Amino acid sequence: MPNNEKVLIAGEWRDADAAGTFRPINPATGETLEWSYPVSRRADIDIALEAGSAAANELLHTPVDKIADFLKHYAHLIGESSSELSKAANLETALPVSPRFVDIELPRTIDQLCQAATAARDRGWTMPTIDTATNIRSMHGPLGAPVAVFGPNNFPFAYNAVAGGDFAAAIAVRSPVIAKVHPSHPRTSQLLAEVAFQAIQDTGLPPATLQMVYHMAPEDGFYLVSHSLIGATGYTGSRHAGLALKAAADAAGKPIYLEMSSVNPVFILPGALHERGEEIVDELHASAMVATGQFCTNPGIVVLQVGDAAEQFIAAMRSRFEDADAGVLLGPGGVRVVGDAVQSMQSSGAELVTGGAPIEGGACRFQNTLLQASGEDFLADPDGLQEEAFGNANLFVVATDDDELEQIAGRFAGNLTGCLYTHSAGDDDLLYERIAPHLRRRVGRLLNDKMPTGVSVVPSMNHGGPYPATGHPGFTAVGIPASLLRFSMLQCYDEVREHRLPVELRDQNPTGNLWRRIDGAWTQADVMAPDDS
After folding, report:
1. Is 296 annotated in the active site?
2. pLDDT tens-digit series, residues 85-136
3. For domain 266-448, which CATH number applies: 3.40.50.1820, 1.20.140.10, 3.40.309.10, 3.30.1330.60?
4. What is the structure's pLDDT at 275?
5. Is 419 a catalytic residue?
6. Among candidates 212, 62, 71, which has minimal Cα distance to 148?
7. Of residues 296, 364, 404, 419, which has the active-site annotation?
8. Is 176 strand, coil or helix?
9. pLDDT digits over 365-395, tens only?
10. Class of the 53-260+477-483 domain?
11. Which listed residue (259, 275, 387, 404) is catalytic?
12. Helices 218-226 and 239-251: angle between axes, nearest 10 degrees
């Protein structure tokens, strides 16, 4: 049995105060991997909170250029370590080294860190607002406290608690991170943390800018997110765990930003189905099967209108699902989640079209699964038929007419995305105008004629949505600088002498090109003295 790996706490790799250990599993084989990792007790969390609080105070006085230099340097070191990182992630997730990691996810992770560096340097996220008549000035500023980040299992790099979007956003706004990594890929997270700690040392940031534990008891997670020293929490994962953490954080008045469950409805309207049904089959199959359906934007429910074209579409998808190899899920828990969701949907009226059972053998696999329900069944039990499978299982809902399509759109819960496929020459426009307003209120990102699985890391992206997709519809986990605002606070200064103000709020523009709202107008100009106006 190997020695327990060390945790990164208070600026050093140290033995954990461990309540036990665990070892990761290779989901492609079912075999237990060689590394052993500790389950930290509360003593580790207390030390991390104290060290994180001290680091937060130091970061308040750290030049923004040094913050940006760290993020850029960390991104560079990840690139240099991409081969070792990819191999570790492949062992722990069964996702392919290429193209998934070296061509897609690692470049995205590096880009996110670089975008966060730019945002830290240009300060635009602070959104300074100045009213000269009252001499009241405000901006978004640092929390002055550590941020806890809980990473998910499906993106070992781009959402990792020690490298992903939440990490980058917190660091850019000067909050040190206490990372609780996902136990499905501890080795990958350990290697990332080693690279991050090297970048911290190279750039001279406080040693506790990043701290990391591998696992903890649920009650210790509640303790962390509700502690008086914590500033905020970012969480990506299951709805059950997310809501439990939210209850603890809310009870203590601590902000927590959750990304949880989403079935991402896709409406294929009759005109589009008749015009290019085979083409949409190709797009849907590719989107539903990417990463064995383990994307938060997987198109989990497809809504059609009854008719021969719908029957042909479902038959074509059944053929695709049956001909395709069932991919590997991220672990035994993934097999259980898909199986439970399929059973739940069946108990709510869905009928099995194909698949529906785990695949025997060492690998963590489940049959490619399609289910079908009528529009009437969906309207009778919309909650039961919106169970997120988070894997290679999809539900078709078949409505009888336009009215039922509109009613179904109005019964969806909050989702990250919603999509409508329509006829290219406008045959579906009237029906679109009936359905789209319902979806618009229920999704963070509305798409036309495009599957939802691609999430572009651009400033305009919203990777959020109403509950239960997230805990708050006003924030996004992707899209810089907007994602930084989750880990900031709005700070107001009333008649504060100029030399005591943050540089962003002083009369002189600190960079010369920072956009500030002065007396109701966005401008890059300095504040003008009364006799200069």
Report:
1. yes
2. 999 999 999 999 999 999 999 999 999 999 999 999 999 999 999 999 999 9
3. 3.40.309.10
4. 97
5. no
6. 212
7. 296
8. coil
9. 999 999 999 999 999 999 999 999 999 999 9
10. alpha beta
11. 259
12. 40
